[in-house]
Amino acid sequence: MIRIRFHGRGGHGVKTAGRIVGTAAFLASLQVQDSPVYGAERRGAPVAAFTRFDSAPILERGVIDSPDLIVIADETLLADAGAAVLAGQTSAAAVFVNAPAGARLNEKYQILPPLVTWDITARTQAVLGTASALSAGLAAAAAKLTGLISAEHLLAAVREELRQLRATADVVDKNVTIAAEVFDQLSTVRFAPAASGIAGEVLTVGYEGVNLGTASILAPGNAQQRNTGTWRVERPEIDYDVCTRCGLCQLGCPDGAIKIEKNGFPVIDYDHCKGCMICAQVCPLHGIARTKEVRSW
Amino acid sequence: MRVAREHFKSPKGLPVEEYLTPGSPLCAGCGGLTTLRLMHKVLGENVVIVNAAGCMTLLATFPFTPLKSSWLYTTMASASAGAQGVRDALDILRDSGRLPPQEDLQVLVLAGDGSTYDMGLSSTSSAIHRGLDFWYLCYDNEAYGNTGFQLSSASPEASHTSTSIDLIHQRKKDLFEIWRAHHPAYLASVSAHDAVDLAEKVERARSLRGPKLFLSLAVCPTGWGFDPEWGDELAHLAVETGVWPLKEAVAGVVRHTYIPNRFRPIADYLEPQRRFRHLFQPHRNEAVLAQMQAEVDAYWAGLGTESTLTPRAPETEHAPRV
Amino acid sequence: MVRQLLTGNAAAAWGARLARAEYVPAFPITPQTEIIETLADWFADGSMPGKFVTLDSEHSMLTAAGAAAATGVRTFAATSSQGLVYALEVLYSVAGWRVPLVLVNVSRGLSAPITLGPDHNDVLAARDTGFVQLHAETCQEVLDSVLLAYRIAEDARVSLPVLVNLDGFFLSFTREPVEIPEADRAREFLGDFTPVQPVFRASRPVAQGVAVLEGGLYSYFRYQMHRAVQNAVAAHTAAATDFERLFGRRYGTIESYRLDGADVALVMAGSFTTKAKAAVERWRSQGRRVGVLRLRMVRPFPAAEIAATLAGCRAVGVIDQNLSPGLGGIFFHEVAGALAAHQVQPPVLRSFIGGLGGKDISQAEFDHVLETLESAHAHDGPHEAELLFTRTEWDQVRNRLALAGKTWERSAT
Ligand SMILES: Cc1ncc(C[n+]2csc(CCOP(=O)(O)OP(=O)(O)O)c2C)c(N)n1
Ligand code: SF4
Ligand code: SF4
Ligand code: SF4
Fold this sequence. Notes:
The complex is a heterotrimer.
Chain A: E1 2-9, H1 14-27, E2 31-36, E3 46-54, E4 69-72, E5 94-98, H2 106-109, E6 115-118, H3 120-128, H4 135-146, H5 151-164, H6 169-185, E7 234-238, H7 248-252, E8 258-260, E9 266-268, H8 278-282, E10 288-292
Parallel strand pairs in A: 1-4, 4-5, 5-6
Antiparallel strand pairs in A: 1-3, 2-3, 7-10, 8-9
Helix pairs in contact in A: 1-4, 1-5, 3-6, 4-5, 4-6, 5-6
Chain B: H1 31-43, E1 47-51, E2 70-73, H2 79-95, E3 106-112, H3 113-119, H4 121-129, E4 134-140, H5 175-180, E5 186-191, H6 195-206, E6 211-217, H7 221-225, H8 231-240, E7 246-250, E8 253-258, H9 266-270, H10 286-301
Parallel strand pairs in B: 1-2, 1-3, 3-4, 4-6, 5-6
Antiparallel strand pairs in B: 5-7, 7-8
Helix pairs in contact in B: 1-6, 2-4, 3-4
Chain C: E1 2-7, H1 8-18, E2 23-26, H2 33-44, E3 51-54, H3 58-70, E4 76-79, H4 81-86, H5 88-96, E5 102-107, H6 121-125, E6 132-135, H7 139-154, E7 162-167, E8 175-180, H8 183-189, H9 215-247, E9 254-257, E10 264-269, H10 273-285, E11 290-295, E12 297-299, H11 303-310, E13 315-320, H12 330-341, E14 348-353, H13 363-375, E15 386-387, H14 391-403, H15 408-412
Parallel strand pairs in C: 2-3, 4-5, 5-7, 6-7, 10-11, 10-13, 13-14, 14-15
Antiparallel strand pairs in C: 1-8, 6-12, 9-11
Helix pairs in contact in C: 1-2, 1-7, 3-5, 7-9, 11-12
The structure holds thiamine diphosphate and iron/sulfur cluster (3 copies).
C-alpha cells in the first residue's frame, strides 16, 4: 500500500491534490481511500489530506501516521511546529517540498528521508497567473514519485477533479499543463515495504478527580501561547513616520493583535497576527504596508 | 446624521483594556470576533459568557482559551436558559450574603444568528419575558457559519448559502422587531465598524436592569466570500447603504443612532460579496436589485412616528439625553 | 451502474436519490452537512423532484419528516450527534406513529465536552426509540443500506422508521470506490411508496398520535412496536436477497469475518471494524485463529445469530466505541445477554472501550486486546471494561492538562 500525506495551508489546494491522486489511482483500477483532515480550513491555517492506494483491499482508516510519502506545499510549514509535517517521517521513502530545485532543506529542518524539491509555485505563477492553487502540481509530484500512476491517469484525474470544482476550461487546461510538466521532470523514488507501526505501550487509566477529569480551563487568556502568526500570508508593517497614533488599526483588528504602546504608537504582535490586512485598509493614512510572508500565494 | 454622544467622543476615548487575547482559532478577519472584543472592552471585567453552538464555540478549545473572563458553552438552543441559571444562582448567593459584590458577574449570552433566530428563539423569548438581567450579543453573519454556511432565517434575500433553494424568495427575519415586541430593557443594533456607537450603546444599557440585547451584523469573509481585508469596509457599506440600520430601543422606543446623509446604492455593498455574485454575473439582475433597493428605501421612508431620532424619554435611571 | 469515488456523505445522498425520496426536511450539523448540501443542489437543479426544506432545528426537522411520512410521502432526513439527541423526543413519536422513513445519522461524540470525532453514543442513545438501526462499515454499504432501509421501513410487517449509521470523518469525509446502481434497477428493487396505514386524506379522516391512558393498552401498543422491529430481520433478509440478485452484493444482519474455526472473536460495529480486520489478517498470517463479528443490524438485535456464530469460540472480546457511564460498553452487555439467553458460554468474555471521539485504535491496542483474551482463563472472574489507551496519548493528555492550568496537585484538592 502507498500512503501519501499532503500538508499545506487552507487555500493551497492540498485537499484537491489528495483527490487528484486518489482519482488517478482509481482510474488505474487500484483500491483507493482519500480524505482531507477534519475541520474548517481557514485560509492560511495548516491543513492536511491523506491518500491511500493499493492493489489489495485497504484495511486502514483515518489519519496517516506512518506515511510512505510526505508532500509539503510550502517551506514555511516545516518551521511551523503546530503543523507537525514531518511526523512519522522515518517510514517515508521520500519527502517532497515545493521549493526551488536543489534547495538545501534537509539539515535546516532535519528531514531524514531523501528530499525532492521542485518549484511548483514558480510554474503555477507563470502558467496560471496565481500561485495559490497548487493542487495539480502537488498531485503530479506525488503521482510521479510513487511510480505507480501513469501520466494519462494523472492528467485525466486533474481534469476530473477541477471540473468538479467548476473550473473553467482554460483553467483546467493550464492545470493539466502544470501537472504534465511536473510529472515529466521528476523521477520515481524507491519504496521499501513499510514497517508496520505496532510498537506502542497500552496502559490503564485510573480516576483522577473532578478537576482533572473535566474539560475546563483554568488558565485564562492562555490562547496567547498558540502561534497564529504562522497563518499569515501577508505581513502588515506600520510606517511610524506616517502614523498619527489614531488607534483605528487597533480597534479594527479582529484578533486584538495590535497593542498600543505607552507612547500611543501601535505595535503589531507578529506571533499572532493572522494577516487579514484589515488594519492596512482602515489606516486613514495608508501607513501600513504589506509584504509577502509565504512564498506560494 | 449622528446622535450626540454622551460617553465616548472618539475612538481614542474607548477603554484600552482587552479581555480577549489573540491566538484564537477563528478565521482571519472574523467580524464576529471584532464585535465581541469591542463589546467586552466596554463591558469591562467580571463577565461570564454563556455560549450557544456556533463559530465562537471554538474560542475555548481545550486546552486554550483567549478569554480572560469566564465561559460556559451550553447547547445550540438553550444559551439564554443557561444565562438564567447563572444569574439566578449569583442572585441567590448575593442576596444571602454569600457572594461578595466584587465576586458578582455580568452574564453575557454569545450566539450566532442561526441559534438566535432559529432554535434559540424560544429560550431567549422566555428569558426576556421573565425580565432576566443579562446581556445578549448576537453576531449575525447571516447563516450557519460554523457548519459551512447554510441557510438560516437571518439569511437575506438573494444571498447564496449552501442550502438555499429559492434565493429570491428567502427573507431575513426582523429580529429587532421580534425582540422589541418583548419590551426588553435595552435593545440595539450595532456594527463593529462603528466602535464608538457600539460602545455608547453598551454604556447606555449598563445602568438598566433586565435584558440588554445587541444585534451586530458580523462580516464573515469565509461565508460571504470576500478577501478578509475588506471586512471593515463592508461593515461600513452595510451602514452607509442603509442595509444595516444602527438603532436602539429603550423600553420599546426606537431611535436611530446614525442616519447616512446620502445613502449609497445597495449594490455597492452587495457586489463585492461572492454570495451575491449571481446578481451581477453573468448579467446584472436589475429586477432583483431594484426590488432589494426598494425594500431598503421603504424601510427608511417608513421611519415614522415610532422611530424617530428624538424619542420620548423612557423611564429609566439614566435616561439617555439626546 | 457507475463506479465512482464517493464520500460516505455523498453515498448517503445517492441512496436518498436512488430511493426517490420526495421530501427532505433539513438542518445542518458537522459532519452531516455534505449530505443535505448535495441534496439541496439536486432538488434545486431538478434531479430530485419534490421538496427540500430547511427547518429551524432537528426537533422540527424530524417532526416534519414523520408528519410527511404519515401523510404518505417517501421522506429522507439526516443528522448527527447533538442533532440526533435534540430530536430524541421526536424519534420516539414517529416510531410510535409506525411511519416509514429513513434517517441517516453520521456518528459523532456527544457534548460535553463538545467534539467532532466519531463514536456511537449518539446513535445508541436512539436504540430504544423503535427505530430499526443499520450500521455501515464502508461508503458502499452506506448507499446500499439506505436502499435496504426503505425496503425494511415500508415492509408491511414493519412499517417503522429506519436509521442508517455511518461514522463521521472515517466514512463521511472519506472517498472510496462506490458502485452507484442504475436508477431503473434501483426502482426495480424499491418500488413506489404505498403506505400500509391510512394517511391523511379529506375522504378518510384518521386520528394519529393519540393519547393512550390505560396501561394495558399502552403495553399492547408498545409491544406491537417491539414485534414490528423484530420483523425487520425477515424484511431485511427478503430485501437483501433481492438486493444480491440485482446488484451482486450480499448483506446479513451481522458480518462474519474469518470466523471459521476461530478460537478468538472480536465484536465491533462501524468503520473501525476495518482496523480490526487488518489486525486479523496479521494474526492469521502468524497462525493465530482469530476473526471478527461485525454488528450490522443493531435493532432488532440479532441475538440468535450472534450466539450461533460465537458458539465455538474460546474467547470473545467486545470492543465498544461507546461508553455508558457506570455500565461500560453497551454492545458488550447486549452481546453478553444474547449469549446467556442462548446458553452459549465462551470461557472468556471481555469488554474493551476504544475509539471514543474518534481516537484511533492502533494495531498495538489490537495486539493488547488479543493478548488479554489469549492469556485469560475461564476462572479469572468478572472484569471491568478496559479503556484502550496508549502511553503516547497519556503523555499528550498530561501535557494538555498542564497547559489548561491543571496540575496534579491542584486536582487533589
Ligand atoms: C442541536 C444542534 N444541532 C446542530 C448543531 C450543529 N451546529 C453547530 S454550530 C451550528 C451553526 C450555528 O450557526 P449560527 O448560530 O449562525 O452561528 P455561526 O456558526 O454562524 O457562528 C450548527 C448548526 C448543534 N451543535 N446542535
Ligand atoms: S493583519 Fe492587521 S488587523 Fe489583521 S490580524 Fe494582523 S494586525 Fe490584526
Ligand atoms: S490606523 Fe494608521 S495612523 Fe492610525 S494608529 Fe494605526 S497605523 Fe497609525
Ligand atoms: S466562518 Fe465567518 S463567522 Fe465563522 S469564524 Fe469564520 S469569519 Fe467568523
